[in-house]
Amino acid sequence: MSANIINFLIFPGGVFAVLFALILVSLERILVARLQGRIGPVFYQNIIDIVKLFNKETLIPKDAKDFVFKFAPLFGFSGMLVLIYFLPIPGVYSGVKGDYDLIILIYFLALPAISYIIGGGASSSPYAAISVSRELKLMLAYESAFIIIAITIALYVGDGKGVFSLKKIVDYQLQHGAFLFDWKMWPAFVAFLIVLLAALEKPPFEIAHHNDADIMDGYLIEYSGAPLALFEITSALKLLVLSIVFQIFFWPSTLSGDLFINFLWFILKTIILLGFIGITHATFASYRADQGFKFLLKVPLVLAIISLILVLLSIKGLI
Amino acid sequence: MSIITRSPFLFRINTGSCNGCDVELATTAMIPRYDVERLGCRYTGSPKHADILLVTGPITARSKSYLVEVLDELPNPFVVVAVGTCPTSCGIFRDSYAIEGPLDKYVQVDVNVPGCPPRPQAIIDGVAKALEIWKQKIRNQK
Lengths: 319, 142
Fold this sequence. Notes:
The complex is a heterodimer of chains A (319) and B (142). Helix content of chain A is 70%, strand content 0%. With 319 residues, chain A is mainly α. Chain B has one domain (2-141): Rossmann fold. In chain B, 31% of the residues lie in helices and 15% in strands. In chain B, strand 4 (79-83), helix 3 and strand 5 (111-113) form a beta-alpha-beta unit.
C-alpha cells in the first residue's frame, strides 16, 4: 500500500515527474536558443517561472464563470499526474498492471485539452473562444490518428486479437525487438511523431495558443497567477507522458537488469525525443489554422492506416 | 525570494509608434547575438501574464484607451519601461493635436530607454535595470 503512495507522490509520479517535466521544457528552450545562436535560459528556468507565478496576484475577469474558471486547470493536472503513476516505464517502473490500460491512456491523454477547453470557455474572452474552437478541431484531428496507431500496436502484439495491456506491449517488444526497428511500423512511427507535435502544440502546429500574432495567448489569455502555473505544469507533464508513451509504443529497450542504468537510459531516450521536438521547433514556422487541420487529417491518418494494413497483412501471413 | 526575480515575463504594447522600436523589441532582443531570454525573460501574449510592460510610441488619442486598459490588467507587482524617445517625451510629435502623451501622465514610469530607436544593448540594459526595480517592489510588497 505504502509503495503505491510513494509511486504516486514521489517517484515516478508527483514530485519527480513535475520537476523532471519542467526541466525538460527548459532544456527544450535552451536547445531552441542554441540552434538560433542565442544563449538561452538556465536549465531550471521553468521551475522559477512556476514559483513566481504562484507568488503573483490572481485576476479573475468580471464576466467569467468563477468556479469553472478557477478549477479548470485541476482537470488536466490531476489527469496527467494519475497517468504518470499509471504508465509503465520500461526497465524502471512496472506501472499498474491492468488489462485495458491502453484504452485508459487514450481517455486520459485527452484530459489536458479538455481542461483547456473548459477553462478557455469559462474565461469570456473572444480570443479564448476562437482558440477553444481551434483546440477542439485539433484534438479531433490528432486523436483519430493516435487511436489508429494504438489499435495497430494492440493488434500486432496480440497477433490478431487486441492486447490492450501496456505491460504486455512492453514485454512483447523486449522479446521480439522494438517496433522502432520494424519496417511495418515505420509509417505509424512517423504518424506518431506528427501526432506528438500536434498534441504538444509545438510548431508547425502552434495554432491554438502561444500564437501571439494571431490569437495572442489563446485560451490562457485571461489566466494569471496560480491557475496559469497549473496550466504550465500540465503542458510540461504532457510532454513527459507523451515521451513515456513513445517509449512504450516504439522503443522500450533496456540496457541491463540494473534499475539505475535503465533509469539513465530512460532519461537519455527522453532527451533524444526532446531533441527532435526542439529541432522541429527551431526549424519550422507554424501552419495557418486551416492548413494545419488539413495536414493533420491527411498525412498522419493515412500513414497510420498504411501501418494498420501492413500489420493486418502480416497477421494473415501474406507478407 | 530573489530567485523569482529571474523569471520576468515581458509584454509589449505599441501606442502609435512608427514600428522602429517595435522591430528592435520584437526581433533584435531575441535574435542571435542579443538575447533577453538569458535573463529568464519570455514574451507573453497577454498582459495578465506580464511582469514588465514595454511601451513604445507617443500615445495617440486612438491608442490611449487601450493603454489604460492594459495598465489595469497587469497583476501586481509590475514594472513599466518606456522604450524610445516617444513615450518618454513624445519626441517630434509633441505638439500634435492627436497626441495624449507622454507615458508618465498615466503611470509611474520606472525605466526610460531613450533613443530613436534605442540600440538593442540599451534595451537589454533597460530590462536589466527594470529587474532590479522589480526586485525592490517585491520586497516592499512583502
